[in-house]
């Protein structure tokens, strides 16, 4: 039987712009200090997902999606219909990042579909509720939290059953407007996911308790304070050290500190010439270098492109942080209006 929810005026069409995120590292991958994972993440202003949903006579899923993503959307719709009630929806994906590149595309897509669906019915549901229903946020909550509020985010890891618990938000800092992020992407690779990811995690040795404690210290006493005070050096140095520790731990599963040796080569060249916070988002293959200004970003981009000159599969681009969450625009049956969330 469909669940009963407080109703709002239903909409005939909904457009969702969901932001991408960088996963900057776990604090404790296997609960050496008592609680698993804990994630640091940053929402960015590019590579997001935009979809348009409307009530229709027959279900349609089209646009910038692969067959696998189309199947994933159909599964999301089936779960939503079982929970909230039957409604036939047509979904057009205007744009979406390539899957399994470390940008959180799966969570973006699921939350965008879920949010559009409940808005079309006139229901209310939190992002955490939708994520639990749609199977997102089992380890990291930064994509879910970023959908709500953007910024530099720290979550506390899931409690109990990983299938049911969405990690809580512990801290949020606005990402400084003047800082920039160089993204370096390897289009010849994709990050571990699905059964491969589960096997990789299971193969790893226990994470040392002393390193988990050190990562917590880096985040709480260098990275987050650096962002809060716009003090770039401790932020960048702390983040690079955190990424090196996490990368060494996952090296046996992903083939090195970075999943892509070419991305690593480019980022090391960038960091050799300036202070930068470098690392890999999630399982990669996308890497990043955070720098202190737009001018530094232009110089870093030039360095990166020179280092990648003989690597046509490597793409380099500059993005900024994003300090707000998803944009939601709704069209009602008789009048049209815009909502922001």
From TrEMBL:
Alphabetically sorted, this entry's keywords are:
Kinase, Transferase
GHMP kinase N-terminal domain location, by residue?
Answer: 76-139
> Which molecular function term from Gene Ontology is one that the record holds?
kinase activity
Respond yes or no to whether keyword Transferase is given for this record.
Answer: yes
One Pfam family matching this protein: GHMP_kinases_C
The answer to whether keyword Methyltransferase applies is no
GHMP kinase C-terminal domain ranges (all copies)? 224-307
Superkingdom assignment: Bacteria
Query: Coiled-coil regions in this chain?
Result: none
Question: What is the name of this protein?
Answer: Beta-ribofuranosylaminobenzene 5'-phosphate synthase family
Native organism: Paraburkholderia ribeironis
């Amino acid at each position: 039987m469909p669940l009963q929810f407080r109703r709002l005026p239903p909409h005939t069409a909904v457009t969702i712009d969901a932001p991408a995120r960088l996963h900057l590292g776990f604090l404790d991958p296997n609960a050496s200090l008592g609680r698993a994972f804990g994630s640091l993440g940053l929402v960015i202003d590019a590579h997001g997902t935009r979809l348009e949903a409307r009530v229709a006579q027959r279900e349609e899923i089209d646009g910038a999606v692969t067959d696998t993503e189309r199947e994933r959307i159909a599964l999301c719709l089936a779960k939503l219909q079982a929970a909230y009630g039957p409604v036939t929806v047509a979904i057009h994906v205007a744009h979406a990042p390539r899957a399994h590149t470390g940008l959180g595309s799966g969570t973006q897509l699921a939350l965008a579909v879920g949010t559009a669906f409940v808005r079309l019915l006139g229901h209310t549901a939190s992002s955490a509720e939708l994520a639990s229903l749609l199977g997102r946020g089992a380890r990291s909550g930064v994509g879910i939290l970023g959908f709500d509020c953007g910024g530099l985010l720290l979550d506390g890891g899931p409690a109990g059953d990983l299938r049911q618990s969405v990690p809580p938000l512990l801290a949020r800092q606005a990402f400084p407007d003047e800082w920039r992020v160089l993204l370096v992407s390897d289009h010849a690779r994709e990050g571990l996911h699905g059964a491969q990811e589960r096997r990789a995690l299971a193969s790893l040795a226990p994470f040392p308790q002393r390193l988990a404690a050190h990562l917590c210290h880096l985040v709480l006493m260098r990275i987050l304070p650096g962002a809060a005070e716009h003090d770039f050096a401790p932020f960048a140095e702390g983040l690079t050290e955190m990424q090196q520790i996490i990368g060494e731990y996952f090296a046996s599963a992903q083939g090195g500190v970075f999943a892509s040796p070419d991305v690593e080569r480019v980022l090391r060249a960038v960091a050799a010439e300036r202070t930068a916070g470098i690392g890999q988002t999630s399982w990669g293959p996308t890497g990043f270098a955070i720098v202190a200004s737009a001018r530094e970003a232009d110089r870093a981009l030039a360095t990166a492109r020179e280092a990648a000159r003989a690597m046509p599969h490597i793409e380099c681009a500059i993005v900024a942080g994003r300090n707000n969450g998803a944009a939601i625009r709704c069209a009602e049956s008789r009048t049209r209006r815009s909502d922001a969330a």
